[in-house]
Amino acid sequence: MADAIPQDAAEVLRLRDALASWMIEAGIDQWRPGEMPLSWIEVCVAQGWVFVARDNGDVVGSVTLVWTDPFIWGDRDEPAGYIHMLMVDRAHARAGLGRGLLDWAERRIIRAGHHRARLDCVRDNAALRAYYEAAGYVLVGYRDFAGGIPSVALYEKVLSG
Q1: Are the C-beta atoms of 78 and 158 separated by less than 8 Å?
Q2: For residue 73, what are the contacts with CB-CB under 8 A and spacing of at least 6?
Q3: Which of 51, 63, 82, 141 matches a 20 to 30 Å C-alpha distance to 10?
Q4: CA dihedral 28, 36, 72, 47 (to 10 degrees)
Q5: Would you say the C-alpha torsion 86, 90, 92, 95 has a positive or negative sign?
Q6: What pTM did the predictor assign?
Q7: pLDDT (tens digit, 9 = 90+) per residue, 108-139?
Q8: 3-state DSSP call for residue 64?
Q9: 3-state helix, strand, coil in the chain (%, to 5)
Q10: Which element (helix H / strand E) includes 149?
C-alpha cells in the first residue's frame, strides 16, 4: 500500500467507475458510473486520504480513510477511522486483496490511536453487507437520506492492538 499521488486520481476514478459498471451488471445497487467527479478524488488524494495497491505499476486496489464523517455518521463521541471506497480491480478480486486492504486500513486506524473502524454501504447491498459482517463488522444502524439517495447500513468494528 502506498499513499496515492496526484497522478493516481484518474486511475482511482477509472477503477471506481469500472466497479460501478460491474455492480450494475451484477444487479448490485451501490454506485453508478460517472457519479463521482474527478475533482473530488483529486481533493481526497491531496488531503492524504487515498491509498493504492499496485501490480506492475498499475492501480489494482484502493481505499480511502478519513477521521470524521459527519455527512453519513453525524457527530460521534468515540474517535474512529472511517473506511470508504474499498475497491479492488475485478481481475484481482479472488486474490484476497480486498480483505488485505481492509486489514491494512484497520492497522492504520490503530496506529493513529483509534480503536474503532466504521464503514457503510447501501442498505440493500446484501453481498457487501455479508462481506463486512464476515470481516467482523457489526451493524449499528441505518442512515436515511432525502432526494433519492439510497439508505445506508452503518457498520462498526472495535479494534484491538
Answers
A1: no
A2: 82, 118, 120, 143, 154
A3: 82
A4: 130
A5: positive
A6: 0.93
A7: 999 999 999 999 998 988 888 999 999 999 99
A8: strand
A9: 40, 30, 35
A10: none
